[in-house]
C-alpha cells in the first residue's frame, strides 16, 4: 500500500448521500450497531448504552480536478466549521426536528439540511488530503 499523502485541489460535483453523521465507536471509529437500549461495535467489540453513543461526521462527495473524477469521503471534526456544530449536536437537532415533524426514521436528515449541505459544497473548490 502506498503511504504517500498529497493534496488534491478539486471541486465538489455532488453530495453522494444524505446521511452526514453516524454513531461511531470511540475506540476504532467504526459504525456502531444501535438498538433501542444498547450499542455494539462489530469491529472491536465495544458495547454500551445507546444513549451514550457518540456521533461523527461522514460526508461522501464526488469531486473533480482538471483531469479526473473521484469519490471521496471526509470524516470527523474537520467538518465542524462547515456545519457550525459538532456531529453530536447536529444529531440532537436532527432527532428533535424529526420528532416534531413525526418522521419515523430517526436517522433521516431533514430535506432542508440536505439542501444546505449541497449549497455549501457543490460547485466549491477545496484542498483534500489524500
From TrEMBL:
Q: Which GO terms describe its cellular component?
A: cytoplasm; nucleus
Its keywords, alphabetically, are: DNA-binding, Metal-binding, Zinc, Zinc-finger
Example GO molecular function term?
DNA binding
In this chain the Replication factor A C-terminal domain maps to 9-95
Q: Which GO terms describe its biological process?
A: negative regulation of intrinsic apoptotic signaling pathway in response to DNA damage
CDD domains (UniProt xref) = RPA1_DBD_C (cd04476)
Family listed: Belongs to the replication factor A protein 1 family.
Q: What is this protein's name?
A: DDIAS protein
| Gene name of this polypeptide | Ddias
